[in-house]
Automatic annotation (TrEMBL), chain A:
<dbReference type="InterPro" id="IPR005149">
    <property type="entry name" value="Tscrpt_reg_PadR_N"/>
</dbReference>
<dbReference type="Pfam" id="PF03551">
    <property type="entry name" value="PadR"/>
</dbReference>
<dbReference type="InterPro" id="IPR036390">
    <property type="entry name" value="WH_DNA-bd_sf"/>
</dbReference>
<protein>
    <submittedName>
        <fullName>PadR family transcriptional regulator</fullName>
    </submittedName>
</protein>
<feature type="domain" description="Transcription regulator PadR N-terminal">
    <location>
        <begin position="29"/>
        <end position="91"/>
    </location>
</feature>
<dbReference type="InterPro" id="IPR036388">
    <property type="entry name" value="WH-like_DNA-bd_sf"/>
</dbReference>
Automatic annotation (TrEMBL), chain B:
<protein>
    <recommendedName>
        <fullName>DUF2812 domain-containing protein</fullName>
    </recommendedName>
</protein>
<keyword id="KW-0472">Membrane</keyword>
<keyword id="KW-1133">Transmembrane helix</keyword>
<feature type="transmembrane region" description="Helical">
    <location>
        <begin position="116"/>
        <end position="140"/>
    </location>
</feature>
<feature type="transmembrane region" description="Helical">
    <location>
        <begin position="146"/>
        <end position="164"/>
    </location>
</feature>
<keyword id="KW-0812">Transmembrane</keyword>
Length: 109, 262
């Protein structure tokens, strides 16, 4: 049952957009929404960033699809964390990128 | 400070203008219709505009890097335009992934054009009523003849101004249609396609993507007449149809003007 759900989500999200990928990677550990842009900057060595609207849209969409869970504290802090299905989607993306990377290694540029 | 501008919300032109003002020390504070309010700032801001679905909560918390400056909810299409800014030095030139696709921009632009055309209609209808009352009043007052021309001039100037605004938006709509390759709802010429000497009814599934086909009629000599709404030229239509009809069949396409076969 869970495998079917994971596969449906993988089919829906794969290949991940850059914005979806960065959003999902940044919530691998519990993180508040305010800290996510800084986390993305750190992950990409400051070379890429997501607009606030794009980030909100991805967080909303992934929370709705249960790739991410959202917890709202008493002080209105929104904390996000990846779920099992989110990890499955991310693992599928890792395998896809590994294949592409392997292809590129054999390409002479 | 405030300014009135007839921008398509979330457009490149609007963002460029907002960033220019931010460089001069005026930071966007609020957007209401065509009115933009600004506050003076000494910080160096880089601004972004993004389209966000209305069910997305855009107030989930302020970010360390970004600040939401203004949010506008549009009715056509129903979407939020989020204006955000950053003062972070590392983000002044970093590529930022934002959701600003041309399809949405096109819909927003079409909505704005409709708004100006509706305003022109409302203005005209209001003046029909107003002019009737004004003329009745002027007759009753036995006003001098020149006073009768004031009302029509005001109506004409107002209408021209609204149509000019609609035309400015329309030019951008045309550019966006080309960029987005989206002709949905756009006016397209109707070509009249005649297939003569056909042994059977032609199967046009293979050329369905040329445009919107509608069957008009047929006769006992094997002539089939279709109307095709399409941006394709006469030659392109003929080339696309040739492999689908037998060699003895004749393809005639009449231009959308319907004046001569081309």
């Amino acid at each position: 049952m869970a495998t079917e759900l994971y596969q449906r989500l993988i089919d829906k999200y794969e290949p991940l957009t850059e914005a979806a990928f960065l959003t999902l990677v940044s919530v691998c550990e519990p993180i508040s929404s305010a800290e996510i842009p800084a986390k993305i900057a750190s992950l990409t060595n400051g070379q890429l960033q997501l607009g606030l609207g794009t980030l909100y849209t991805n967080l909303h969409m992934m929370t709705r699809d249960y790739l991410i869970t959202e917890r709202v504290d008493a002080d209105e802090t929104h904390t996000y964390e990846i779920t099992g299905s989110g990890t499955a989607v991310l693992a599928a993306e890792r395998d896809r990128l590994a294949l592409l990377n392997q292809i590129m290694k054999n390409v002479r540029l | 400070m405030w300014r009135y501008r007839n921008f398509i919300k979330g457009s490149e032109a609007e963002l460029k203008w907002l960033n220019q003002l931010a460089k001069r020390g005026w930071l966007l504070k609020q957007v209401r219709g065509s009115r933009y309010d600004f506050v003076a700032t000494t910080d160096h801001y880089r601004l972004f505009t993004e389209y966000v679905p209305v069910d997305v909560d855009t107030t989930v918390g302020t970010s360390q890097l970004f600040k939401v400056l203004a949010i506008v909810t549009l009715k056509k299409p129903v979407i939020q335009v989020v204006y955000s800014g950053t003062t972070a030095p590392e983000l002044q030139s970093t590529p930022v992934d934002t959701t600003t696709d041309d399809q949405l921009r096109l819909k927003v632009a079409i909505g704005l054009r409709e708004r100006w055309l509706n305003l022109a209609n409302i203005w005209t209808l209001s003046w029909v009523v107003a002019l009737t009352l004004i003329i009745m009043l002027l007759v009753a007052l036995q006003a001098p003849p020149w006073t009768y021309s004031i009302g029509p001039w005001i109506w004409l100037l107002g209408t021209l101004w609204e149509l000019l605004k609609a035309h400015q938006v329309h030019r951008q709509v045309r550019q966006l249609r080309l960029r987005a390759r989206d002709n949905d709802g756009a006016w397209q010429p109707t070509m009249h396609v005649f297939l003569r000497h056909m042994p059977t009814t032609p199967d046009l599934k293979a050329v369905a993507d040329l445009g919107v086909w509608s069957f008009v009629g047929e006769d006992h000599k094997g002539t089939y007449w279709y109307d095709l709404r399409t941006p394709a030229s006469v030659d392109e239509i003929k080339q696309a149809l040739r492999p689908l009809v037998p060699p003895e069949a004749q393809i005639n396409v009449m231009s959308w003007l319907g004046l001569w076969p081309l």
